[in-house]
Structure formats: C-alpha cells, structure tokens
Amino acid sequence: GSPRRLLLVSNSTLHGGGYLGHCQQHIQSFLGEKVKRVLFVPYALHDRDAYARTARAKFESLGYGLDSIHESCDPVEAVRKSEAIFIGGGNTFRLLKALYDNCLIQEIRKRVLEDGIPYMGSSAGTNVATISIHTTNDMPIVYPPSLQALGLVPFNINPHYLDPDVKSTHMGETREERIRQYHEEPNTPPVLGLREGALLLVEGDKATLQGVTGARLFLRGKKPTEHEPGTDFSFLLIDS
What we know:
By secondary structure, the protein is α/β, with parallel strands linked by helices. Helices cover 26% and strands 20% of the residues. Strands 3-2-4-5-1-8-9 form a seven-stranded mixed β-sheet, sandwiched between helices. Strands 6-7-10-11 form a four-stranded mixed β-sheet, with no helix packed on it.
C-alpha cells in the first residue's frame, strides 16, 4: 500500500466563515501532533507575501509553524526538508507553471508518495494533486509546460463544483456539460466534482468524502452519480 496522506479541500473559505475555518478540525486531525511546521506554497496568487501572512496566521492559530516556499532561496531543498506541504488556491495555471519552473513536480511526488509526508491542497492546490489540470475552472492566464500535474491520485477533481441553477436564464454550458465534453476525449480519467464545503481524505489506499456537502462523480461513458459525506471513494485510487 501507498504511504500517501492527502487532504484535498474544495475551497479555502466557506460563506459565513474565515480562511480555512470550515475545515480547521479536519486539518488538526490530519496533521496531528507529529507535524510541527508546514511548508506553504503560495504560487497560485500574485501577492505571495500577503498570501503567506494569511496562511501563517491560520496555521499558527491551530498550533503549527508555517514556512512559505517563496521565501526560501532553494525551493527544492525546502520540499526535501518539509514535514508537511500545503498548496493554497488561486489560479491553477499560474500555480502549475511555478511548480514546473522551480523543478518541484518530482520532488513533491517523492515526498508524498514515497516518504509519506502529509499533503494538503485547497482549490488550485487540490487541482494540482490530481492527474492533470484539465478540469480546473480557471482561466489559462499563463502557459505551463504541461497540463500534467502531481499525479498524487489517479483521477481528476473539479473543485467548487456548481449545480445548474434552475431559475437562471444563463444559456452557457453548465459545469456538468463541461466535464462531459472532457470525457468525450479518449482515455480520460474519472472526475470528482467537489462542492464548496467538501473535502476528500486519502490515507494510503483509502479515500473518504468528508465535509458538509456532497460530491458528484463523473465516469466516462456513464451517468453522473451523487454522493454524501462519508462515501468511500477508495475504488478511485485503483489506477484504471
């Protein structure tokens, strides 16, 4: 079995709450008492200093020190020494390009999949944990060398998944239609639509849906299915 431990969160902020407020208990039980410091990756936002301040304040309130990778003169070495990694949200294309630019794809994979350090992602940080960023909602504002991501799990996720608003007069494609278009391409992996407030906990070869909202699962050539918190998604970890 894999030693991987992942906490993949749909969104950083839930309506009515503060930064990571809706999942802070999940974070504490996930990181536990062994982890003392978290390595934060703020590459998805332009103002990395401000982003690091926000994340640092939150993690310190939970009892963890936080080092931001953008303050390190050697990002690869920072990953190699890290006890846990948290990649925050923002623009997924900007984030993935920076991971490639700093030669961090293989380093993070090794730390998580071989060394078993905890990996937490929210929004864009959840996107890059998957096979590729094909199912992000973000605009391609920069051009990463590849859309292939960290591949910590063998499927894709659509964070902030939105159901169609039955009262809306908007005629553009729904999120479901966009994911179906993705699955019209050959050999495309499953897509888990994580609604705001949902998160996926991966421990080794076990994956469990947690949080306060459900998820919608899209498998190529099949009708999408609805799933409540507590659902066992371990079958998605079997690389198809």
